[in-house]
Amino acid sequence: MRLFNCVLAAFFFAGSSANVWAESLQTVTVAQSSTEQVITAEGSIEAVKSSLLAPQVAGSITAFNVKAGDQVKAGQVLARIDTRIANQQAAASQAQVAAARAQLSAARQEFERKQRLYEKQYISKAALERAESDYKTAEAQAKAELAQTGVATVQTGLHIVTAPYAGIVAEVMAEQGDMAMPGKPLLTLYDPKETRAVVNVPQSQIASINSGAEIKVSIPAAAESERSLSATKITVLPTADLVSNIVKVRLLLPQQLTSISPGMFARAMLPTTSTSLQNQIFIPAQAVIKRSELMAVYVVDVQGDPQLRQVRVGRKQGDNLEIIAGLQAGEKVALDPMAAANFKTKKLLKK
């Protein structure tokens, strides 16, 4: 057994300095956690309002007025598409409207004339009815041409891409001179006023989330004042990923954050009401030795002798690691594995 411990110690600390000796070791007593249990979930930041803008008509892009990172106002022109064909179609529609109105005027005059003749019994009723039918047909044709002109006018307006709301251009996927096609994205726009963290939670743990408790969200890349936030609303999406069985949880963040942008890494601490997470064992992460797939700690016995013991670890909570197997409450663990290894080596050499 002593030889086994020496081999493991040499395995973990090969190449370490042999000048570090410790006559006494700092230890921590293993105890079951009595603090509020949480689920640590990781994900990213996304904007609540985000749009992928694409044109509704085809044509060459004649102007592209924005680039990634630009702030735009609602209604601001972002891009223009060649309108020459649309303008010609609109002009043709207007000409057809003018022709239809002329025919309508002639048909109306003919119908009114036939009415006067019929009143004097100079023509038959059938002739009057034919004149009335021609007049109604011309009237319907004029309305149809007028509606078609409205469509052509709308089509012309679709050649101008405007911002649907005030926001920031996140990405530009086209340039001036490119061919725009319906459904082919030109740019991505988002509103920075409202953001949320979207984290991934195993499906088995969703039911244990205490949605009524305060939920902390950590964003390491944000400004110091915005690195730790409290979520204002939690939304659990109703579906899970078929392969990973992961459920996405949306955590709405406070508004008007200045250093938060979509894509940033986020970590959420989700309080749980599950009794299955009670009586867990956590020890400081610094006490755990990791070499490849092997995890171990130095357990100090009643004689003060550190013994290397393999453990199985779980999730990380702050500066602590969950110990799933290998330790029991009441045992003492060396906080400094280096000092424990040197202490053990020195003791064996003396013998």
Describe this protein's structure.
The strands form 5 sheets. A 7-stranded antiparallel sheet has the order 13-12-16-2-11-15-14, with no helix packed on it. Strands 1, 18, 19, 20 and 23 form a 5-stranded antiparallel sheet that branches. Strands 3-10-8-5 form a 4-stranded antiparallel sheet, with no helix packed on it. It is rod-shaped. It has helices at 2-12, 84-119, 125-157, 337-350, and strands spanning 27-29, 38-47, 50-53, 59-64, 71-72, 77-81, 160-162, 167-172, 179-180, 187-190, 195-202, 216-218, 228-230, 233-240, 246-252, 265-271, 282-284, 289-291, 294-300, 306-310, 312-317, 320-325, 332-334. A hairpin with a 2-residue loop joins strand 21 (312-317) and strand 22. It is of the alpha+beta class.
What are the main properties of this structure?
Elongation Factor Tu (Ef-tu), domain 3, 351 residues, OB fold (Dihydrolipoamide Acetyltransferase, E2P), single chain, disordered N terminus, 5-stranded antiparallel sheet, alpha+beta, 4 domains, rod-shaped, conserved putative lor/sdh protein from methanococcus maripaludis s2 fold
For this structure, what is the CATH class of the largest domain?
Answer: Mainly Beta
Strand order of the largest sheet: 13-12-16-2-11-15-14
Counting helices, strands and paired strands, the structural category is alpha+beta
CATH topology of the largest domain: conserved putative lor/sdh protein from methanococcus maripaludis s2 fold
Shape category: rod-shaped
Count of discrete structural domains? 4
Mean pLDDT, nearest integer?
81
Largest sheet: 7 strands, antiparallel
**Secondary-structure element series:** HEEEEEEHHEEEEEEEEEEEEEEEEEH
Count of separate DSSP helical elements:
4
The count of β-strands is 23
CATH architecture type of the largest domain: Beta Barrel
> Which regions are unreliable across 5 or more consecutive residues at pLDDT < 50?
1-23
Tell me the fraction of residues in β-strands, as a range. Answer: 25-35%
The proportion of residues forming helix, as a percent range, comes to 25-40%
Rg estimate, integer Å: 38 Å
Terminal-residue CA separation = 15 Å
